Amino acid sequence: SFLPPNYSWDAAYERELQTFQDIGDTGEIWFGEESMVRIIRWLEKNKVPLESSVLDIGTGNGVLLVELAKSGYMNLTGIDYSPSAIQLSEKVREKEGMSNIKLKVEDFLAPSAELSGFDICIDKGTFDAISLDPGDAVGKRKLYVGSLGRVLKPEGLFLITSCNWTKEELLNEFREGFDILEELPTPKFCFGGRIGNSVTALVFQRK
Predict the structure, then answer these.
(1) Which intervals hold domain Methyltransferase (predicted)?
(2) Spatial contact of 87 and 60, defined as CB atoms under 8 Å apart
(3) C-beta separation of 205 from 177 below 8 A
(4) Is 166 left (phi over 0), alpha (psi -120 to 50) or beta?
(5) What are the helix (H) ranges across the chain?
(6) pTM of the prediction?
């Protein structure tokens, strides 16, 4: 894994918040530009309506939501359990003048009742982070899948980008209640003569 075991997301976002206040830089984009482009291209190619309600799970600095808004998506919500991340997202949103993006501090493993009825959920690295949690990662993954089933409409879409899990592992994790629609092409890397994927990006549909 690329994160040390005692990694604190809150501390990371507090540093980024400080940096943003000092120099107006949005900080680390955890999965890089190409993963955002991949998601937006897929939505456009599949003519996903611009009024669809979109939830960004673990929005971090909110940059994906800004890019979605620039692409014409109007009904956007970002959640993060880190208040510093949401503060950072709010600053990014203000800088970009995107007042239609809703942002909330929420723990996705125990979502509030109003977090429901979304057409699309997007995850870039949040499921990965939960999976690395030293305290009961298996239980937390189950909670995550349960929450996803609650917040996403039947037949809603779930786009996940992961650098910890293979396609087969993700299919297994989300087999309860979700069907795979498509695997998105991601950069490949070569390790010890074997081609592997550094990143897996899948689109699921809720049954």
Answers:
(1) 53-181
(2) no
(3) no
(4) beta
(5) 9-23, 32-45, 63-70, 83-96, 126-131, 137-151, 167-173
(6) 0.84
Return per-residue pLDDT of the chain as tens, 207 residues: 445 555 566 776 677 666 555 554 444 444 567 788 899 999 999 999 999 999 999 999 899 999 999 999 999 999 999 999 999 999 999 999 998 899 999 999 999 999 999 999 999 989 998 988 888 899 999 999 999 999 999 999 999 999 889 999 999 999 999 999 999 988 766 666 666 667 899 999 999
**DSSP class of 110:** S
Bridge partners of 105, per DSSP, are 80
Whether the CA torsion 29, 53, 8, 147 is positive or negative: it is negative
What is each CA distance from 4 to 14, 29, 129, 132, 150, in whole angstroms?
18, 18, 11, 9, 31
Burial of 183 (0-12, 13-18, 19+ CB in 10 A): middle
- All domains of the chain in start order, with CATH: 27-206 (3.40.50.150)
Output 72-76 pairs: Cβ under 8 A, ≥24 positions apart.
Answer: 73/43, 74/50, 74/100, 75/51, 75/100, 76/100, 76/101, 76/102
Dihedral sign (CA 63, 35, 143, 151): positive
